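Reviewers of the previous submission asked for a worked example of the structure-prediction workflow described in the proposal, so we include one complete record here. The input consisted solely of the amino acid sequence. No template or homolog information was supplied to the procedure at any stage.
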Amino acid sequence: MAGYRKPKNDGPSSEDKALDLFAEMMIEKIESIQGDWRKPWFTEGALQWPRNLSGREYNGMNAFMLLLHCEKEGYTIPRFCTFDCVQRLNKPGKDGQELPRVSVLRGEKSFPVMLTTFTCIHKETKEKIKYDDYKKLSDKEKEEYNVYPKMQVFRVFNVAQTNLKEARPEMWEKLEQENGHPKIGNGEQFSFAPVDMMIKDNLWICPIKPMHQDQAYYSISKNEIVVPEKEQFKDGEAFYGTLFHEMTHSTGAESVLDRFKPTAFGSPEYAKEELVAELGSALVSQRYGMTKHIKEDSCAYLKGWLDELKESPQFIKTTLLDVKRAASLITQKVDKVALDLKQDVSEQEQQENKVSATEKIFYASVAYLQFADDTRQLDELKDKGDYKGLLTLAKEYYDGNGMDEQQTYASPLRNRGDDLLIEDKDFAVVYNGSVGGTYEVMLKYTEQEVRDHIRRYGIGRASDDVKAVARDMAAEQFAAVSRQKIPAFELPGGEVLYIGYNRETDSFDVGPATNAGIIAQHSFPYDHDATLDDNLQRVNEQLNEMEEYHAEEVQEEDYGGGMHR
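From that input alone, the workflow returned the following structure tokens.
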């Protein structure tokens, strides 16, 4: 009988190969900084946060390596896609017409991204369930399952490695526009309002205290951040970069990410926590368009970081997982404050520009008299200048019916040559001398009356001016709901998407939140014949039906870290 043969070892796993590559890239980057520690972590203002082709952001660990990859290869659009994603772009168009094929260019090499999926197995029945179903269980029910994390490696290509520019020029142009935004600010003392508000209103996980002194640190014992005042830094970017460094440290507290362990100053664990803080602050700064240089105090750790990386590529894995969790916590908080600020500004602008409903008047056409009609009496009154008599006569053409929203306008003058002859509190008469002369009799309504009409009858056949009022109403209702909390949906895969009403397109924009607002990944038309709650429910249902949000949730395991400075 043949003896047992041990399966052949095919060499390093895909995860090991990815970690080796990440370690090599980090070594190269740190060595370049060691040669000139004034160099920034990333090229100044060059790239935005990496996303996939559908607009979903990569997490902190993958984002950091993809930024380094873009910088090294010269990619100016940090958007990536898998080979399968490229193939899906080759589906026939809506009209069934075959479009030019999108493909990866010959000879191009993919880049690894690492994701952790979870397998949930019942301890007794061995039944498997999805991780998003496991999350919905009670604590007692969760005890009946074993949860096994598994790191998986996926290969992605930058859009510049495909023929997308030639095959889908409109999509390429849109990607260029989305990734060509300028930095949020520069100059000597630019201000980043979301972080300024976090400091002022104590919205971070611990107090932040700018003080006129020369040290920046996070105190574990007091659970507070102390930094010099902004005016003491060479520019605003240096202030925020230093603050992000200390904010990253503060996420390691026991009550937050529990990363700190008792350790001595200068130990490997201490050095690792400094690297977590440096990479975390570099990543957060890059997200908000700021340039982050290495903190001068951290330069002493450069050699230690290199030694650790060269000795064990696993060092970069545990470090980047800590960076991912810390950076995610910071950006989520900042983005939430930024969204609240934007909402407050929008409400203030609406309030400042809003005309009282009792003052703003709309004009509904109730009679249109042309040359085919007998307008001789009106002509005589007009020619004599008896506009009061003309108005009295014109009122007789009104048949007593209610508002026709299709013929209701914000101004009585809509065509070239229109002339408002006379009006009182209820009626107006407009004359146009072209083509034999026409008279239009118009009944006046307040904006409040227009709004009441919209609530009763909708806007199915309304004029553009009436539809604009409906958009104002939707914007006001959404703003009222958003004052306490910006609406958001948690999808089956665990992703959280925010929702905003876009008055210009009369639709809901749905996507992740940034300091500039919501990055719209999806747009849903607003139904003015339904309530706001019904509209939100419909959007939620449609999102939950989308395949892309039914993948198992991607999360990383908890890893320990070192202490802060």
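Residues 14-178 form one domain. We consider this example representative of the routine output the project will generate in years two and three.
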